[in-house]
Amino acid sequence: MAFYERSFMEGTRGTQAVDWEGRIDTRRLRERRRERALERLQETELGAMLLVSDPNIRYVTGLAMTGGSGADHYTLLTEEGDIVHWDTADHASNQRFNCPWLHDIRYACPGLGNVPRASGRDSARQFLLETMAEGVAEAATEYGVADEKLGVDVGNRGLLEALGGQGLETDVETANAVMEDARKVKTEDEIECLRMVAAICEAGFQRIKDAAKPGRRENELWGEAVRELWRHGAFVGGGYLTSGPNTWPKHQANTTDRTIRPGDLVYADFYNVGYLGYRSCYYRTFSMGEPTQEQKEAYEAARDNLYDVLERIEPGATTDEIARGFPDMAGEHADYYDADEHWQLTTNHWAHGLGLQLYEVPLIWRGLSPDHPIEIEEGMTMAVETQEPAGRQGVRVEEMVVVRENGVEILSQWPVEEITVVDQ
Q1: Distance between CA atoms of 379 and 332, rounded to whole angstroms?
Q2: The predicted structure's pLDDT at residue 250
Q3: Which residues share a beta bridge with 408?
Q4: Quick check: 55 and 190 in contact, CB under 8 A?
């Protein structure tokens, strides 16, 4: 199957706002996401949804979620398209000024997360939950949906009981299905955000290539890369860099203070780097000097496994069919791990959806897909990743892609054919 070829001028443009070129249209980005969620809500028996999960809130409201302390921000979306958003005092005040597309912003009562956990008393926790539920019920009454079923995207028993105490009938399963279905296929602006974050990651890879040398520590080199990512406007919420024996198996502490030495392999994992909230997952391997034949062969195996999977991805294909492109138990080096089942080898070889979260639909994995397949749809975006040991070290490689009608488009463009060699 042929890979998707971008047309003339299609691809990453500048990161700044201009009036002379159509770039990411943030208003259209917000509106189309909200429309997708609303359309799917209206297909259900729900009268409204209470969204507590940060990515779901951002998808519907366009607000920059900080991760927060848990339920100090939450959003109500009604079947008529009305939005009520609750947030902390400072955030809510700021949002009222800076987010004119939202017309009803209220102060949140943090019923879940760090605040009730730190309170030290059950009575305090109950007060917070009941106050949060009371505010939601008041808004539901104001917008005429109090007598209809309320979808909730978290299954916290205390919250559901508190909402029930206010006379609200809740449904967790339907709300999660609505948001999953809305988010799994991306709009043109969402895809451009992912293409943009891939380009920013490539700036980070270039900084690693320029700054790497024997004697530098992993954390120093990673700091150089992170600085470059921030300089390009990214949010860096994860990622790491490892070297030498820390590259196989993956080091439990990720980046360490290990000193990089001649002959080391180095790989950088740019995961959870965000642009307008859209998250990357993008690996590349570097060699300190010319790689050995063993390292070249390991890299070739990892790259070929990756592209075998990519060639299987197309609309209508199912995840069980695609997963066959990933290594079997021998190719997974299961004997090294003393593993008997693919599910024991989480994250080694798989493809996972990308969007406002690092892991979204679909997931393609031998540990799950053969018995629980789903169908691939045009417009899905994902990261496909493989790895391979090379003696006492290892290589990793990963591509970010979007499913097109005539093949996957590879959003990542850092050279993949060979290990990137760093001259010493």
Answers
A1: 30
A2: 85
A3: 403
A4: no
Domains (ranges, CATH) in the chain? 44-183 (3.40.350.10), 188-422 (3.90.230.10)
Contact (CB, 8 A) for 208 and 221: yes
Whether 260 and 243 have beta carbons less than 8 Å apart is answered as yes
Cα angle 163, 164, 165; round to 5: 90
Per DSSP, the three-state class of 308 is helix
Please report how the helices 26-42 and 172-183 are oriented relative to each other, as an axis angle in degrees rounded to 10: 140
Question: Contact, 390 vs 299, CB < 8 A?
Answer: yes
Question: How many residues appear in the chain?
Answer: 424
What pLDDT sits at residue 2? 66
Q: Which of 389, 390, 381, 347 is nearest to 366 (CA)?
A: 347
Low-confidence ranges of the chain (pLDDT < 50): none
pLDDT in tens, 381-420: 999 999 999 999 999 999 999 999 988 999 999 999 999 9
Q: What is d(CA 424, CA 415) in angstroms, rounded to the nearest whole number? A: 20
CA angle 185, 187, 191 (to 5 degrees): 95
- Whole-angstrom distance, CA of residue 319 vs CA of residue 368: 9
Note the pTM of the prediction, 2 decimals.
0.94
